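User: Show me a protein chain along with its predicted structure.
Assistant: Here is one chain, sequence first, then structure tokens.
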Amino acid sequence: MRRVKSEIIRHVLFLTAIIAAAVMVFEPLTSLFRSSMHRDYHSLIPFIPFVSGYLVYLKRKGINSEKAYSFGMGTVVILMGLVLYTAGCTLRIHLNQNDYASLIVCSALILLWGSFIFAYGIHAFRNALFPLLFLIFMIPFPAAIMEKIIVVLQMGSTEVTNLLFLATGVPFFREGFFFHLPGQSIEVAPQCSGIRSGLALFITALLAGHLFLKTWWRQLILAACVFPVTMFKNGIRITTLTLLGTYVDPRILQSSLHREGGIPFFIVALVLMAPILYFLRKSEGQRLKRQG
């Protein structure tokens, strides 16, 4: 009976921390979701806790086997989260909406991690490390970092588009991010960088690597392949839509296929990533077989 009571207290403590973290992030994330940035950059955030929760569920046996209170370390991490939260509230007037949300969500996650350590201990935290760190994707990218990522993807997508135009043999003239075709000019704008689908693909690659690969460096290779695949997929999308708009119907460039047609091309990216995962897993299996 005493053990059952202790387990209930442990779970209540962590549930209280979850509620506190949710209250902390509710206002900044709600405000961010109402902004124009949500559609392009933050649409995946609401799904992250559910994925993380499912991953914790998969690791429940390892977590439950090594539970022990860790009052000292847990308290230190919780205090770090509270200090960061206080700093975020103090600096709010000096931060833009996106960066304020980044700081507050980061503080809430630190508090949550500290509460997990407090209630379940360091060993349980190590067993749940990937699911808990996966929550980092709830943190909106700071604006300065997001801009740099977008520029890299924009430049890469432009170069791929240039190569694809050369391969098709269509007449065109390039000026930086602009392509001039007969009767049509297009720009590979920041909105065309593919940041949203690239982030979704990166998260998918991390999950696939965690679930299907055992060696960290193979997981890293799989995640790193997301960047060239995203640029290639984006180049295919830009080239396809431009050629359809130039030689079939100009209205295509203003249609929902242009604005909302990312899913078919995201599937193309998944198809491109599949053989990479297959060969990484196959090479890992062969190595383990030789060692066995």
